Amino acid sequence: MRTLVLLALVGLGAQLVDGSLGMAYGVTSTTLLLAIGTNPAAASATVHLAEVGTTLASGASHWRFGNVDWKVVIKIGIPGAIGAFAGATFLSWLSTEIAKPLMSILLLALGLYVLLRFTLRGLRTDRLGQPLRKRFLTPLGLVAGFMDATGGGGWGPVGTPAILASGRMEPRKVIGSIDTSEFFVAVAASLGFLFGLGTAGINPTWALALLIGGLIAAPIAAWLVRLVPPRVLGSAVGGIIVLTNVRTLLSLDSFPVSDGVRALVLGIIAIGWAAAVVYSFRQHRKAVAAEKAETVGEPEAAAATAV
Q1: Do the Cβ atoms of 43 and 263 come closer than 8 Å?
Q2: Do the record's keywords include Transcription (predicted)?
Q3: Rounded mean pLDDT of 193-216?
Q4: Distance separating the N- and C-terminal Cα atoms of the chain
Q5: Cα(1)–Cα(92) distance, rounded to whole angstroms?
């Protein structure tokens, strides 16, 4: 029972982050399942099974709040589903000895990308309104879908920053469209795992616990996306993913290190993570202050011109 409650809380927290940032439900949930010893393919399959429900609820909530661009959803969602099915089938054929370190490395890479991307660069907004082309969204969907299925997460960490970096959509619409299109990815990945694994190793009770937590959080997250600073949240989530997966890798027989070295490495990462969150928060406050100053300066400049 304690495990189910923990999974429900993880599902709730992960969906709050995913729905307000456009990423990290799969990465966060899969990382936890790996940490408690779940088979990598079964972990990804369980998470994607839960995501069928959470992404549907999240997409409906974002649509209700006006956060969805349906053209982008279709253009990226269909190739994403193709990539996810291929990735799920590929992961199902790998042995556990190969799959666990491979998945942890993929998750670590995604976590580093999220952490560095949001901490150092923030968000770009100078191209708002320009259309996103199919030749950009189709390969992005294929790669993100494949990464999502093989890494247990990756649709958001790959897709959301890529579209945000283009500067062509409002952040809330990027997040809403990515979350909505993830429904296609979750369905395709689940079918791929059922094709490759059958029901072996998939824990429907765990999937249900993750789903319940996600369903509670979905409408809250769709509302929060208008309020929470994505830069700060991105740094926080990226750090959690990096710390957890480094811990997983250092616990494998492939990386024989002493407890003291492990503690030192994790301590250094934790300090760097805290510094990244503080830096992102300060940069966010500076950006808000600069925006307010610019807004106040415009009427003053107009008054001076009139005089």
Answers
A1: no
A2: no
A3: 70
A4: 72
A5: 29
